[in-house]
Design goal:
α8 packs parallel to α12 and α15 packs antiparallel against α16. 81% of the residues lie in helices and 0% in strands. By secondary structure, it is mainly alpha-helical. The protein has three domains: 77 residues; 182 residues, no CATH class; 162 residues, no CATH class.
C-alpha cells in the first residue's frame, strides 16, 4: 500500500486505540480485517484512498463498536490496574506471558550476577547491557513469534557485539573502548526493537510503536527503580539499627538482581498495562517540553555571553550533546503520545520552539567541535560526537520544515511522525559504526 494509505490506517488505528474498552489485540484484529477489506476493494479496480474510506465505512461506527466492547468486556476497565487479570478476558495468554517475563527476568538477573562474579569491575560494566538485553529480545521473539530467520539475525547481531566488546584489542581505558561500551547497548536496544516489531522493521507504524514502548519502558523502569531504592534504603536502615551491615549483600546481590530483573518486568508492564502509562505520557511531555525550551535558551544565552565558541571546554560540549539527545527523546515521545486527530494547538507551537532552540544550540556546538578538530586534530571522541551532532542537526532541520508545514495546515501530522521513524535506522547505523569502525580506525586507542 502507498504511504498515504498507511498514514490513514495509522491514524485510524490510533483513533480506535483511544477507546479504553478496546485492547491492542482487538485493534490488531480489526486492522487486519480493515486491510483485507482494502485489498479486496482495490482488486475490483478502486483506488486505495477510496477503498480505505469504503472499508472504514463497512467496519461500522467506531463509537458503536467501542460501546459494544465496553458492554461485553466492561471488566477490562476495572481490571487495568490489577496485576493478574482473569485469563478469560485476555485469551488465556496474559498469565503465561507474565511467567515467561519473570523467568527471563530471573535469567537476566543471574546473568548479571555471574558477570559481576567472573569479570573484573571494568569488564563487567562493559558487558552490562549485553548480559541483560538478550533476555529482553528473547521475550519479544517469543511473544511476537518472530520468524526463525529474523531471530537468528538478532542473535548474530548480539553475538557480534559481545565479540567486539570482549575481543577487540582496546587500550585499557582508552577512548575507543569507552565509546564502544556506551554505544554497544544502544545497538543492542535497536536489535531488541527488531524483535519488538516482530521483524517488521520496515513498517513506520511499528517503528513508532517501538519509540512509544521505549518511552513507556523508561517511565516504568524509573518507577521500579525509585520504589526499589526506597525499599533498599529502609532495609539498610532496619538492619543497621540491629547492628548488622547488609551493604555487601545488597551491593553484590540485591541491586544487580533487581536492576537486571526490572528490565523484563518493566517491559511486561508496558505490554500489559499500556492504558495506564498512556495517560501519563501527554502530561510528562507537556511538563518537560516548556522546561526544555527554557533550558536550551538559557544555554544559548550562556554561549552568547561567553563571547566565543571557539575554545569551549570539551566536557561542556559532551554535556551539550547529551542534552540534545534528551531533547530528541522528548520530541519522539511527544510525537508518539499525540493524538493525530487533534487540531493544532499551542503545544504544537511550543514543540516547534523546542526544535528551533535545539537547532540553534546544535549549530553552536558544531562550530565549537569543528574548531577543536581544526586546532587539535581528530580523535575517536571528536568524530563520534561530531557525527552524532550532524545526525541530530539533519533530523531537527527537516522536523522544523515539517513542523511549520503541520502548524500551517500544509502537512498532515503523519508526515511529522513518518520523518522520525524514517530517521531511526540512521541512529542505529551510526552507533554500530562507532562500535565497529572507529576503534580500528583510531588504532584501538
Amino acid at each position: 500500500m502507498t504511504t498515504d494509505v498507511e498514514t490513514q490506517i495509522s491514524e485510524w488505528r490510533q483513533y480506535v486505540q483511544a477507546h479504553p474498552a478496546i485492547v491492542e489485540a482487538d485493534v490488531d484484529e480489526m486492522e487486519e480485517h480493515l486491510r483485507e477489506q482494502i485489498a479486496d476493494l482495490t482488486e475490483t479496480g478502486l483506488g486505495e484512498d477510496e477503498a480505505f474510506l469504503i472499508a472504514v465505512k463497512r467496519m461500522g461506527n467506531l463509537d458503536a463498536i467501542s460501546h459494544e466492547f465496553a458492554r461485553e468486556h466492561s471488566e477490562r476497565l476495572w481490571k487495568q490496574l490489577v496485576l493478574l487479570p482473569d485469563e478469560s478476558t485476555t485469551g488465556g495468554g496474559r498469565r503465561t506471558e507474565l511467567w515467561v517475563a519473570l523467568g527471563l527476568g530471573v535469567g537476566a538477573a543471574i546473568s548479571a550476577r555471574l558477570g559481576i562474579a567472573l569479570l573484573d569491575e571494568e569488564r563487567a560494566a562493559a558487558n552490562a547491557g549485553l548480559l541483560v538485553l538478550p533476555f529482553l529480545a528473547a521475550f519479544f521473539v517469543w511473544k511476537r513469534q518472530v520468524p526463525a530467520r529474523v531471530a537468528g539475525g538478532i542473535a548474530l547481531g548480539l553475538a557480534v557485539l559481545a565479540v567486539v566488546v570482549n575481543v577487540f584489542p582496546f587500550d585499557e581505558g582508552g577512548s575507543t573502548q569507552v565509546l564502544t561500551v556506551i554505544h554497544a547497548p544502544i545497538v543492542a536496544w535497536f536489535l531488541v526493537g527488531v524483535a519488538y516489531v516482530g521483524g517488521d522493521w520496515t513498517s513506520h507504524r511499528r517503528r513508532m510503536d517501538f519509540v512509544r514502548f521505549t518511552g513507556e519502558w523508561f517511565v516504568y523502569y524509573v518507577l521500579l527503580a525509585l520504589g526499589g531504592g526506597v525499599l533498599v534504603g529502609l532495609t539498610v536502615g532496619a538492619f543497621s539499627t540491629l547492628g548488622h551491615d547488609p551493604e555487601t549483600v545488597i551491593g553484590e546481590w540485591v541491586i544487580p538482581f533487581g536492576a537486571a530483573g526490572a528490565v523484563l518486568v518493566a517491559a511486561w508492564l508496558v505490554e500489559a498495562k499500556q492504558a495506564v502509562v498512556e495517560n501519563i505520557a501527554p502530561v510528562l511531555t507537556r511538563i518537560f517540553t516548556p522546561l526544555s525550551v527554557l533550558m536550551l535558551l538559557a544555554v544559548l544565552g550562556a554561549f552568547v555571553s561567553d563571547g566565543s565558541v571557539l575554545h569551549v571546554d570539551r566536557d561542556l560540549l559532551i554535556l551539550m550533546a547529551l542534552i540534545l539527545v534528551l531533547v530528541l527523546g522528548l520530541l519522539l515521545y511527544a510525537i508518539s503520545a499525540r493524538d493525530p486527530r487533534s487540531p493544532v494547538d499551542a503545544f504544537d507551537w511550543l514543540q516547534l520552539a523546542l526544535v528551533v532552540s535545539a537547532i540553534l544550540v546544535d549549530a553552536v556546538v558544531l562550530v565549537a567541535m569543528l574548531s577543536r578538530i581544526a586546532e587539535f586534530g581528530a580523535s575517536a571522541n571528536k568524530v563520534a560526537a561530531l557525527g552524532l551532532n550532524l545526525l541530530l542537526l539533519g533530523n531537527l532541520l527537516r522536523a522544523t520544515v515539517l513542523g511549520f508545514g503541520f502548524t500551517g495546515g500544509r502537512e498532515p501530522f503523519g508526515a511529522v511522525e513518518r520523518w522520525q521513524t524514517t530517521y531511526l535506522p540512521l541512529y542505529a547505523a551510526w552507533a554500530a559504526a562507532v562500535v565497529v569502525v572507529l576503534p580500528p580506525a583510531f588504532g584501538w586507542e
